[in-house]
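U., I forgot to send this yesterday:
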Amino acid sequence: MELNESELIEKEITLRNMRLTGEVLETRRSSIRWLALSLGILNPGESRLSALAVLDALVHFQFVKNVDPDVKAITEYINANWEEINEKTLRYHLLRMKKMGLVENEQGKFYFTKPSIGDRFDAATWSSSLFDSDYRDISKKVGDVIKSIKEKERSNK
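Result:
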C-alpha cells in the first residue's frame, strides 16, 4: 500500500540558522532580507522585493509602532519606504505568510502570530515562541514513530 505523503503534511516549517554578521545589521533592508531568509519567507538567491517590503511593514507596525495595521496602512508604508505595491501583490504575500503560520488577521488588521504567553509586541517574546508549539508537536510525533518502530522490532523477535 502506497501512502500519499502530501496528504499527511499538516504544516511545513522552514527555519534557517544563519550567521548574524555585522554586514547583516548595517542596513534595515539587509536585516529584513536576513530575517526573511531565516524564517523561510525567501529562499537563498531569491530577490522578491515585495515579500521583503511586506515583512518590513509588519515588523515596523508590530515591533516599532505596537499597532496592528490594515491593508491601507501597510500599502502606504511600503509605497513610502520601498517601491509601489499593488493590493493584489500585498494580499498574496500576507496570505502566504498566514499559511506559513507567521501572520494572522482579524477585523481587517494584520499582525504576526500571537505568542501563547507574553507581550506580542515584544520581539524576543514573539520570536522565542514562534514555532514552539509546532516544534513540540513534531517532536512528539517523531518520538511516537520511533517508539512504534522499536515495538514492532521487538514483537518480530
